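[DERIVE STRUCTURE TOKENS]
===
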Amino acid sequence: MKWMKIPLGPLQTNCYIVYNDQKECVIFDPGEEAAKLMAKIDGQRLKPLAILLTHAHFDHIGAVDKIRNQYKVPVYIHKQEETWLSDGMKNGSQNFLQYSITAAAAEHVISEETQLTFNDFVIHVMETPGHSPGSVSFYLEKEEIVVSGDALFQGSIGRTDLYKGSMDQLLKSIHTKLLSLPERTIVLPGHGPTTTIEEEMVSNPYLNGF
């Protein structure tokens, strides 16, 4: 199994594509620039199986509909944010951009921590709220990676001053969920460079003294 990171849009939100030897793939957070993303997918001759959203802020959903329609794949979102896809106030686009970025309703709503399986992709859904109430992280144990959305970054954590954000909740999510993963786990964050659980346990200043 391999993965690639594709920063998209004005906020350079990281979209991730995880793919296998059969060229099947799962897409995480297609935030913007659908044409650029499709060029990567088609250039590698990949066959998308699903779109998984860590949360529904506008910079993570901007290309959802175009990618979904192009490849006829389902979208997964947590139930706490299923209505955010169509609401520019909740997903932040109205406040930040003064116009709405929206997407059609997700085909699948995640209601609890669970395991998603797409052929040989086995993905554990971890509820990691705080940055937003429906934030989730996607852990691929065999590949030793976790797609953390905007919960945990290299040397930082997600902001909590947006709609229904909570610092206490975010810190609890990070410490009880993400930092419980094996230290060698590679963290694929929503923005910026990749890191590891070990690196953040040792050096992330926002996590000291919790």
User: Anything to note?
Assistant: The chain has a mean pLDDT of 97. Helices lie at 34-43, 64-71, 93-97, 167-176, 197-203. The CA atoms of residues 178 and 197 lie 7 Å apart. The longest strand covers residues 2-8.
